[in-house]
Amino acid sequence: MPVPRKLAICALICTSLLWPAPLPSLREQADIQQGWLKLRLERVLPQLMRKHGVQMWLVICREYNEDPVLLSLVSPTVMAARRRTILVFHDRGDQGVERLALGGGSNGGLYTVYRDPENPDREIYGDSQWTELRKIIEARKPATIGVNISHTHAFSDGLSAAEWEKLRDALGPWTERVTRPENLALEYIDVRLPEMLPMYRRMMETAHSLIRRAFSNEVISPGKTTNEDVEWWLRQELAEMALTTWFHPTVRVQKPAKAEVSLLNDSGAAVIERGDVLHVDFGITALRLNTDTQHMGYVLRSGEKAPPAGILKALANANKLQDIVFSSIRTGLSGNEVLARSLAAMKEAGLKGSVYSHPIGDHGHGAGPLIGLWDRQQGVPGRGDTVILPNTWFSIELNVETPVAEWGSRELWVGQEEDVSVDEDGRVNWILPRQTEFHLVR
Length: 442
Hints:
This protein has 442 residues and is α+β, with helices and mostly antiparallel strands. The protein has helices at 5-18, 26-51, 127-140, 161-171, 182-190, 197-214, 227-240, 309-328, 335-348; strands at 56-62, 84-91, 97-102, 112-113, 145-146, 178-179, 250-254, 277-282, 285-286, 289-290, 293-299, 353-355, 358-359, 392-404, 410-422, 428-430, 439-441. Strands 4-3-2-1-5-6 form a six-stranded mixed β-sheet. The longest helix is centred in the first third of the chain and has 26 residues, at 26-51. Mean pLDDT is 93; it is low at 1-16.
């Protein structure tokens, strides 16, 4: 008997949700990343250098002491600096931004490997790099020379003390033209290409699929499985899929008799039992991109088909706070302004919660404006004062505490985290549909 068309479509959708399309092979991923890199260097970097008044930008680092911006500037096959890597970006106006590499390769032709004109066959390393850098600067005479030193943003503070001392010695009188444009590196890392979004969505689908499986009877046997068992199952699945993560997954258990939850992940192993509420914080890393997701699960008691009404309300309240933060994100606002608006609306709605959202992309806790920290709800000076830009991504991360009648009015802590994109026109969109129902362990 043929399957009715509606049922067939439903089955196809359900299958795609449970088993998302696998990511491309590592070699194919590298080709995709190289294309992104070319676009970032040609499309994003020149605009930012002009925005911040930087005619020459120097990114200088040594092997295994890399500048945080380095991996956003080099090919996916480059894993570290080459002894010392000096990248020189020189804005020539209508001729575009010249890209030179002193140390390391051409990154697939995206950089010109600089050679000493007197010894073109010799690779430049060691102290000779400083000599050649001085020649480059004297030949181009930039009005401003930007370096990555910042007291506020780690992403803009990649020039080590020793390399800064060497650079000052090499520059001599040109030191007077050195500036510290901390938002240049910060915004270069922060800004996303629209071309990245489809692959990022596939990564998110993979993360959501693994969480669904983790919070099911495939992994959890009530009364036997511990939260640590689930954490390590997630890590093992990632390894078998040739994926990795940027932090160890955390699974927390709230029990009817003791609903408190530790945000410091120091509560130890707990056996998962019927009636427990589960929380997971999980992210995956691929294509030098990172995801970050928090979902909730519930272990059904015997005879239950759904969580109790009070527990369902707790998740609904977290969804309300998500709506508030989502609607507060606007380009041109600082992270602290979005936080203040969100907390004021949260209070007006009668919710008890916290907001600690952050940019995401090249790093899990990404470059850009912080929208609170879990222990800094009054705003974050400096890091929260930068503004939201078009073409950026955020993890809307928060929690709400709700009294649950079925638990004797003890509060249930619900943590949620879902990623959103801000497009070039400032529109905010969920990258995947957010969680509105508990994952159920039967």
